[in-house]
Amino acid sequence: MGDKPIWEQIGSSFVQHYYQLFDTDRTQLGSIYVSICLSVLSTLMQGHWQKSSLPFTKIAHSITAQDHQPTPDSCILSMVVGQLKADDDPIMGFHQSFILKNINEAWVCTNDMFRLALHNFG
Amino acid sequence: MAEKPMWEQIGSGFVQHYYQQFDTDRVKLSDLYTDASCLTWEGEGFQGKNAIMTKLSSLPFQSIQHSITAQDHHPTPDSCVMSMVMGQLKADQDQVMGFQQVFLLKNVDNKWVCTNDMFRLALHNFGA
After folding, report:
1. What residues does the NTF2 domain cover (chain A) (predicted)?
2. What would the pLDDT profile of A57-98 be if each residue is shown by its tens digit?
3. What SS3 state is found at B56?
4. Minimum-distance CB partner of B124 among A37, A69, A93
5. A2 to chain B, minimum CA–CA distance in Å?
6. Which of A55, B32, B40, B81 has the fewest CB atoms within 10 Å, i.e. is most exposed?
7. What are phi and psi of B41, to 5 degrees?
């Protein structure tokens, strides 16, 4: 079995690390962002953003699938499809995408987009 | 009403054009890709315009309709535009399914092209 391409190794490590931090102590997520461009449920905020202000006490993410690609400018684009459970709410699907960039030999997240998989049926 | 930021105009313009083309005549999507483009379709990778177009042209449905539920657009550090789309689609007589797609757009010779494209159906294995 061949080695995974480097962008898959970096992307999948980031994804694993991200959700592990998110689910255990999301106040620590700050270190992975740099001048972020973050949109959550269509709110676009630039700069450091405290994910600790999200309105749940506990959260568990389960990754269904993830894809990683190298970009022309030597970044990594990652897409995650999964499910999550916050507190005692029902399980919901979510979509998240990240762009990772190597800055000073550390891979940081420059772009992060998250959406719950909610559609208006009808 | 304030104007939308440039990256939103570019991203939403691209997204509208992409799905319109996809649903009417997806062979014409080739204009949007270059030899440096990558597509990941349901976990399978395709490199370059020709491989991408072969895959898209060979998808096993006669008719397809996409409906966009939500889209988000960001500027990236390297002056690209990142777009994420969440929606539903219906192929032939199949049931409606959710999907997710992400695009990275780059300005090459004054034209916005798609260098990265990832598509997945929103299917989960509901486990115990």
Report:
1. 10-116
2. 899 999 999 999 999 999 999 999 999 999 999 999 999 999
3. helix
4. A93
5. 16
6. A55
7. -115, 110
Tokens of A50: 């405290």
Query: Mind giving me the DSSP string for A8-77?
Result: HHHHHHHHHHHHHHHHHHGGGGGGGEEEEEEEETTEEEES---GGGSS-S-EEEEEEEEEEEE-TTS-EE
pTM: 0.88
**DSSP string spanning A79-117?**
EEEEEEEETTSPPEEEEEEEEEEEETTEEEEEEEEEEE-
Higher pLDDT: A4 or B55? It is: B55
- % chain A with pLDDT above 90: 56
The Cα B122–Cα A119 span in angstroms is 12
Residue B40 tokens read as 């990941």
**Length, in residues, of chain B:** 128
pLDDT digits (tens, 9 = 90+) for B23-42: 999 999 999 999 999 999 99
**CB-based burial label for B13 (10 Å; 0-12, 13-18, 19+):** middle
Question: Chain A partners of B84 at a C-beta cutoff of 8 Å?
Answer: 79, 95, 97, 113, 115
Q: A-chain residues within 8 Å CB-CB of B88?
A: 119
